[in-house]
Amino acid sequence: MALAPALPPAPTAALPPAEPPDGMALKITGPSGATFTRKFATSHTLRDVLSAVHASGCRLDPSRSYKLMARFGVTVSDQLSTLDAAGVQRGAYNVTEC
What we know:
This protein is an alpha+beta fold. It has helices at about 45-55, 85; strands at about 25-30, 35-40, 65-70, 75, 90-95. It has a five-stranded mixed beta sheet, covered by helices on one side. Mean pLDDT is about 85; it is low at about 1-10.
């Protein structure tokens, strides 16, 4: 009986992906209230965003779950969902605990 493959490392343990020069800019406010702006490709996942938030100095607790939320509309909580599939577009978002 084959075992299911393990998920990639938690977002706080992974290095964020390279910032694409032609990516979409997201202004992200972390749980602590700290903000930063970074470009992401539409193929990046929520896990990639969380890794970038963590690497920016806003430490995320690996034992907790997080979601990406726009003020109106988009909410992403599936860490393996791409930004494109989730409907994320350039703009301001919050990272909060689920």
